[in-house]
Amino acid sequence: MIDFENWREVARAQHEHTTQDGYWNDTSIGEHLAHLHSEVSELFEAYRNNPDRLCDKGINITAEEEEMADIYLILLDLVHKRGINLAEAARKKFEFNKTRDIRKMNP
Predict the structure, then answer these.
(1) Which long-range contacts (CB under 8 A, 24 or more apart) does 12-17 make?
(2) Where are the strands (E) in the chain, listed by range?
(3) Is 8 exposed, middle or buried (0-12, 13-18, 19+ CB in 10 A)?
(4) Which are the contacts of 70, defined by CB distance < 8 A and separation ≥ 6?
(5) How far is CA 28 from the centre of its chain?
(6) Best exposed site among 3, 10, 27, 69 by fewest CB in 10 Å?
(7) Residues contacting 18, CB < 8 A, separation 6+
(8) What local confidence, expressed as pLDDT, does residue 28 receive?
(9) What value does the mean pLDDT of the chain take?
(10) Structural domains in the chain?
(11) Which bin fits 85, alpha (ψ -120 to 50), beta or left (φ > 0)?
């Protein structure tokens, strides 16, 4: 059973699934990033159309939750593929961002 509170475990499991499924056989990093971008666009559309409506997959989550989960899983797959320590990178970026004027950051 996957511990979905542990991002490293989710990343490993997601990457194992996509690798076994053949996704990485013919998918470049650029295509993976484009897929991530398309999911962000779908999240935007969910917000425009009603983020609280149930998704159409019959899994009892909202459209917003579905698209955010897609983004999370795709991102973690890429993180695992590239060998990135996301927790450490996020910690460093978080600390850096605390030194910036949040009002002047790009939205």
Answers:
(1) 12/80, 14/73, 14/76, 14/77, 14/80, 15/76, 15/77, 15/80, 15/81
(2) none
(3) middle
(4) 39, 42
(5) 17
(6) 3
(7) 24, 77
(8) 87
(9) 92
(10) 7-104 (1.10.287.1080)
(11) beta
Mean pLDDT of 27-43: 93
Strand partners, 62: 54
Asked if 36 contacts 18 with a C-beta cutoff of 8 angstroms, the reply is no
Residue identified by tokens 């019959």 is 58
> Is the pLDDT reported for residue 101 higher than 90?
no
Q: How many residues in total does the chain contain? A: 107
- Here the tokens at position 91 are 């910690």
The region, left, alpha or beta by phi > 0 then psi within -120 to 50, assigned to residue 69 is: alpha
